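Chapter review: from sequence to fold.
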Amino acid sequence: MQKIQINDDGFYGAFGGAYIPEMLYKNVDDLKNQYLKIIESDSFQKEYHQLLKDYVGRPSPLYYSKNLSQKYNAKIYLKREDLNHTGAHKINNTIGQILIAQRMGKTRIIAETGAGQHGVATATVCALMGLECIVYMGEVDIERQAPNVARMKMLGAEVRAATSGSKTLKDATNEAIRDWINNPNDTFYIIGSVVGPHPYPDMVAKLQAVISEEIKKQLLEKENRGHPDYIIACVGGGSNAAGAFYHYLNEKSTQLIIVEAAGMGIHTGESAATSVLGSQGIIHGSKTLLMQDEDGQIIEPYSISAGLDYPGIGPLHAHLIDSERAHVFSVTDKEALQAGLELSRLEGIIPALETSHALAVLDKMKFTSKEIVVINLSGRGDKDLATYMKHCL
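The C-alpha cell string follows.
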C-alpha cells in the first residue's frame, strides 16, 4: 500500500494545496514556514502536553461498551473525547493552535464554528491565554445551538452571525476568511477542522493525532494488540476522524470507516453526503471533494447535525476515499437520532448528534465476535438535547 502523507505543496494525492487571495499569502506562508518548527520544539511539546493532561483531562478513556458489544456481536470500544474539557475533541486542536499563535506574536484570534464545539474550545483557550476572541457562526446554527452560544459569550468571546447563504458552517467560514483578509497583521485564524489552505489540514491532523496515539497504547493494554479491526468516525470537515485515523493511515490491518450525513436521504436535495454527491473543486483554500453544480456553484448541504452540514470534506479524507483506503457510509437524520437514543439507553451516554452518525453504522455492518471496533465518541450531547427531545421523546 502506498504511504499516505502530505507533500511539500500540501497535497494528499490530488487533494489539498493553498488556493488563497493574494492578501493572505504572507499569513499562510508565515504559518507554513513556522508551524512544524514550533510543533516539534521541546518548549511547545512540553507546554502542549502539560495542558492536555492538566487542563483538558487527557488521556481520554477507551471504554469497553459491553451492551453495544453484545448487541452487535463485536468488541466495541468508545474513545471518550466527550469527556474532555469543553465536551469534545476540538480542544486538542485549539490548545495547540493558541500556543502557535502566541509564538508567532498574534494578539487577536478568530474562528468559525458550526455545532459550536470549536467555538467554545476557541473561546476557552482565548480566556485561558487572555487573547481577544471573535467567533463566526451561521445564524441558523446560533438558533439551534443556543447552549454553546451562551458558553462562548460567558467565556468572553464575541459571537458574530453569518447571515448569507444557508447561514451555517460554510458561511461562517466565509466570514472568518473575510475578517482575516482585513486584519492580516495581528490576527490568527484558528480553523476547527482539517480543511482550508495548507498547512491547516496537516497542522490540525497533527494536533488531533493524540487521539490515535492514545488508542494504540490503550488497546495494547486491554487487548494485547495496538490495532483495532475497524475505526469509525463521523466526518463533516473531518478533524475527529483525522485524529482517530492518524496513526493507522498506513496500517493495512485496520479498516477506516468514514461516516457522513445523508440528511433526509442522499438524493432528496437535503443532504451532506459529499462522497456520493461531490466532485473535485476548491473551497475555503483547498482542492477537495465538494458538492457543486455544473457551473461550480456550491450546493447547499443539509443535516440535522450542525457540525456535519459542510459541502466539502478535508483533503486527507478526499484522498482516503479516492484511494479506497477508507470506506464511506452515509447516515440519515432518522438513523442518527435512533443511534443516539440507543447509546443513551444502553450505556448511559448521551452523544452529540455528530457522533450519533458514527454509531448508526453499527446497524449497517456485520462483525465477528473477535473483531475489535473503535468508535470515536467525538462529543457529548448536551448541546443537542432540544433536538433529541423534539424528534425522539
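Two observations follow directly from the output. Residues 17-51+90-204 form a domain with the Rossmann fold fold (CATH 3.40.50.1100). Residues 135 and 183 are 15 Å apart (CA to CA).
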